[in-house]
């Protein structure tokens, strides 16, 4: 008997489907769909950023891009709800712009809700979006889907993994995560939470693959704090640190370092200021870490300045690029000042960052990238192979579905799952339909997947 793909792609009461429209076969732009009993559940709705120096199959050249939501937008009456697992741009950034195509409730934790409301206020879009706040570690029902929100560790407050339960099976959706026993925000990773899933007969584990090519274990955010302190405490000149604006733990680390080294902390970049504002509103910013006005920095002695600036990937409009071109309104860098890159160099951005460093060198400003530092000045928020192996052994799913990575990352993740004893590993890309139950299989390119431009 020939098994055919349902023409209308409507899941029945015995079906449990996973359909990624973004973030599978690439890093960023996450948009995932789960199908069961004639309804769909969306998990995350993020953006990616166009890099003209990085080869891509997409003809779209807009600066900000999102996954093409046409498939689910045409079926929006079947979309039970949208879950946002955490407030990183590649998981939340497209939602204010795409939500009018969906019109359904949005579920997220209080911190993600704060970020989302700020985005809506700034964009003027989606003013009537119903945002339902779920406490970290909480539960909710969305159509035929029962959701357990599970606290996990990552480089932003309130990251959540999801246990999605249906009458046809259960999916453990990791979202972005790592094993951090000493994070700067939130509680340490708790293995027992995930070990308990082994007794729940998990159908599939849909898992982050970002660092699946790296052996061993990722380092803790606290270890990064110690490394940054060692570098900055030895400096006599101005120090500018550039990193990812959403890493609140890193910003808190730098705040503590500023206080310990007798420096004043200032933030350069709207995204960073907005993220800290949200952290303050939700109680994550310590009261004993003051910030000074960016306009005051230029009047301070060099050895009292610690600036955190956006633009670690060489973005032309970010604060660090303006500093490198001597056109920032609040500070002129001088000879022997130090710029630290407390971030990973994202593949494809090498030429942009090289150009930025050349501009800083012309000013005789010293630079230190994380890959060249003797001290640990950056740690990833994603799991290495050792962590992947442990989580697969904790959860013991029947199927592993690696996502959030390019083809090599996904294949490496599948290899870890196989070695950890997971019976089946399904690999694919955006637009593939992963049938998880009742008869597991993958339908390649069941849905047309692509990208659209987002006015940001």
- How many helices does DSSP assign? 12
Helix content: 10-25%
Biggest sheet layout: 8 strands, mixed
Distance between the termini: 50 Å
Structural class: alpha/beta
Radius of gyration: 22 Å
Mind telling me which CATH architecture of the largest domain this is?
4-Layer Sandwich
Shape type: globular
Please count the beta strands (DSSP E, at least 2 residues each).
Answer: 23
Average per-residue pLDDT, rounded, comes to: 94
Organism: Arsukibacterium tuosuense
Keywords: Exonuclease, Hydrolase, Metal-binding, Nuclease, RNA-binding, Zinc
GO molecular function: exonuclease activity; metal ion binding; RNA binding
Pfam families: Lactamase_B_2, RMMBL, RNase_J_b_CASP
Question: What features would you describe in this structure?
Answer:
The protein has 456 residues and is of the alpha/beta class. It has two domains: 16-216 and 381-453, Ribonuclease Z/Hydroxyacylglutathione hydrolase-like (Metallo-beta-lactamase, Chain A, 4-Layer Sandwich), CATH 3.60.15; 221-372, Rossmann fold (3-Layer(aba) Sandwich). It contains twelve helices and 23 strands. It has helices spanning 70-73, 89-92, 95-98, 110-123, 191-195, 221-233, 248-260, 270-281, 319-324, 350-362, 385-395, 407-419; strands at 16-22, 31-36, 39-43, 47-49, 64-67, 79-83, 106-108, 131-133, 139-142, 145-151, 160-166, 169-173, 204-208, 239-242, 264-268, 305-309, 338-341, 366-369, 399-403, 424-425, 433-437, 441-443, 451-453. The strands form four sheets. The chain has an eight-stranded mixed sheet. A seven-stranded mixed sheet has the order 9-10-11-12-13-19-20. Strands 15-16-14-17-18 form a five-stranded parallel sheet, sandwiched between helices. The radius of gyration is 22 Å and the shape is globular. The protein starts with 15 loop residues before the first strand and ends with a strand.
């Amino acid at each position: 008997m020939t098994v055919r793909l349902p023409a209308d792609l409507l899941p029945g009461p015995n079906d449990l489907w996973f359909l990624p429209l973004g973030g599978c076969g690439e890093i960023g732009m996450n948009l995932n769909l789960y199908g069961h009993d004639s309804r769909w559940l969306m998990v995350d709705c993020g953006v990616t950023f166009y890099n003209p120096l990085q080869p891509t199959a997409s003809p779209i050249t807009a600066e900000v891009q999102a996954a093409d939501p046409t498939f689910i937008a045409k079926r929006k009456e079947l979309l039970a709800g949208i879950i946002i697992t955490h407030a990183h741009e590649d998981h939340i950034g497209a939602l204010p712009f795409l939500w009018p195509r969906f019109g359904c409730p949005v579920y997220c934790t209080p911190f993600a809700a704060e970020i989302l409301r700020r985005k809506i206020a700034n964009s003027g879009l989606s003013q009537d979006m119903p945002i339902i706040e779920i406490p970290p570690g909480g539960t909710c029902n969305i159509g035929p889907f029962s959701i357990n929100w599970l606290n996990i560790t990552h480089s932003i407050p309130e990251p959540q993994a999801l246990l999605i339960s249906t009458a046809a099976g259960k999916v453990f959706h990791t979202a972005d995560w790592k094993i951090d026993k000493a994070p700067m925000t939130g509680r340490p990773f708790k293995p027992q939470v995930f070990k308990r899933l082994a007794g729940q007969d998990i159908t599939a584990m849909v898992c982050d693959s970002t660092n699946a090519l790296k052996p061993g274990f990722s380092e803790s955010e606290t270890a990064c704090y110690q490394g940054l302190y060692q570098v900055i405490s030895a400096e006599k000149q101005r120090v500018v640190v550039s990193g990812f604006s959403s890493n609140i733990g890193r910003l808190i680390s730098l705040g503590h370092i500023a206080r310990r080294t007798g420096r004043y902390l200032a933030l350069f970049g709207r995204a960073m200021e907005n993220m800290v504002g949200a952290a303050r509103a939700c109680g994550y910013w310590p009261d004993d870490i003051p910030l000074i006005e960016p306009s005051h920095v230029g009047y301070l002695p060099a050895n009292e300045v610690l600036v955190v600036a956006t633009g670690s990937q060489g973005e032309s409009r970010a604060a660090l690029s303006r500093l490198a071109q001597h056109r920032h309104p609040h500070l002129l860098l001088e000879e022997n000042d130090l710029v630290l890159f407390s971030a990973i160099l994202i593949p494809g951005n090498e030429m942009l960052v090289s150009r930025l460093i050349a501009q800083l060198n012309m000013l005789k400003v010293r630079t230190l990238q994380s890959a060249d530092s003797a001290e640990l000045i950056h740690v990833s928020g994603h799991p290495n192979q050792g962590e992947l192996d442990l989580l697969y052994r904790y959860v013991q799913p029947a199927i592993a579905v690696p996502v959030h990575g390019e083809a090599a990352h996904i294949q490496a993740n599948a290899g870890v799952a196989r070695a950890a004893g997971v019976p089946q590993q399904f690999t694919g890309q955006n637009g593939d339909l992963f049938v998880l139950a009742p008869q597991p299989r993958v339908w390649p390119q069941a849905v047309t997947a692509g990208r659209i431009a987002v006015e940001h």
